[in-house]
Amino acid sequence: MISPLDVSVLDGNSEELGIATNILMTNAGKALAESITERFEKAPVLMFIGSGNNGGDGLVSSRFLSKNGNSISLVLMKDPSKSGSSLSRKAFEDLPEEVEIRSFDEVE
Fold it and tell me: Considering 29, 76, 79, 93, which has the largest number of Cβ atoms within 10 A of its Cβ?
């Protein structure tokens, strides 16, 4: 498993090599959505979304899956609009209206 520090270093190295973090997030989200679609086609998807850029990857993936016709439900571990990651906040703002969003505190 890669530590958060290692991921941060890898992201920084990618930036230095000319690959912006938002491109990394879009590619990761798209790859996850494609993997889910290959295995489960248009099945409903439930994701637990954390804060930071990893959560942003899940948000981007949710956007791609929703466009594919999957029913998406998100459980937010933290409010992305208050996240330290501007990319995660942007990914949250870009979610389609049909994505169901609940906070972790609301889950029974």
Answer: 76
**Sheet-wide strand order for 100-103:** 45-49, 72-76, 100-103
Pick from 26, 36, 11, 35: nearest CA to 94: 26
Q: Are 66 and 45 in contact (CB under 8 A)?
A: no
Q: What is the pTM of this model?
A: 0.86
Cross-strand partners of 103: 76
Q: 2-31: per-residue pLDDT in tens?
A: 887 888 898 889 999 999 989 999 999 999
Report the C-alpha gap between 101 and 80 in whole angstroms: 11
What is d(CA 78, CA 104) in angstroms, rounded to the nearest whole number? 8
Closest CA to 72 of 82, 81, 63: 63
